[in-house]
Amino acid sequence: MSEIQKYASREAAGELLADKIQELHLEKPYLLAIPRGGIQVAKAVADRLKIPINPLVVKKLPAPGNPEYGFGAITEDGTKILNEDAVDYLHLSPKIIEDISQKVISEIQHRKEYYGGLHDEKIHTSDVIIVDDGVATGYSLIAGIMTVQKRDPKSLWVAVPVSSENAYLKIKQIVKNVICPIVNGEYFFAVASYYKEWYDLQEEEIKRILEDYRAKYSD
């Protein structure tokens, strides 16, 4: 396999996205970022457009007994998308899916209370940009997109530094406006491999970033 293009960091990837978003000349767009890594990517966009960062909280639905394996994703309002192949493989009944979904929604609510959530009235009247640090399967991002679409934004843009080709094509089916500089069709795809610097953000760091940007750019 040829050597892949890499970003120096999430912040550097955000600078490239900010260049492309600035060319759109959107007036005071509403910026949503998916924690955790999407928050770091969104910093450059927020600074360029002088707007705060708002968290779009999405969590994967963990398989029973194997929480690292997800069978879909869900958002704070219960919007979810399932990986039907995984559901079949795991033999998950509707009741099990619902029980897991309710538990994850509770976790999302706790996280939302910790660092804030959606402002429906602003989404409805704004051009909305959703940012993440990359897309592998697409389930989390698609669940987030569907949640925002329910709130009928003025327009919706998705901006990610890198995506698998499969996920990119799925996203393009539901959102017309997608900014993604790197789309890779390799079978084995990992977002982390497209960054020279990669680490998991802690909740405290996410909260600090969000608070800093609210203080800098709140109306």
Shape: globular
Q: Distance between termini? A: 48 Å
Number of helices: 8
Any low-confidence stretches, pLDDT <50, length ≥5?
A: none
Looking across the biggest beta sheet, what order are the strands in?
Answer: 2-1-6-7-9
| Fold-level CATH name of the largest domain | Rossmann fold
Class of secondary structure makeup? alpha/beta
The radius of gyration over CA amounts to 17 Å
Which bin fits the share of residues in helices?
A: 40-55%
Question: What is the element layout, followed by pairings?
Answer:
Layout lengths: L9 H13 L7 E4 L3 H13 L3 E3 L2 E6 L2 E10 L4 E3 L1 H7 L3 H22 L4 H5 L2 E5 L7 H12 L4 E5 L2 E3 H10 L2 E3 L2 E3 L18 H15 L2
Provide structural commentary:
The protein is of the alpha/beta class and 219 residues long. It folds into two domains: 149 residues, Rossmann fold; 54 residues, no CATH class. 44% of the residues lie in helices and 21% in strands. The chain has eight helices and ten strands. The protein has a five-stranded parallel sheet, with helices on both faces. A three-stranded antiparallel sheet has the order 3-4-5. A two-stranded parallel sheet has the order 8-10. Strand 3 and strand 4 form a beta hairpin. The radius of gyration is 17 Å and the shape is globular. The N and C termini lie far apart (48 Å). The model has no long low-confidence stretch (mean pLDDT 93).
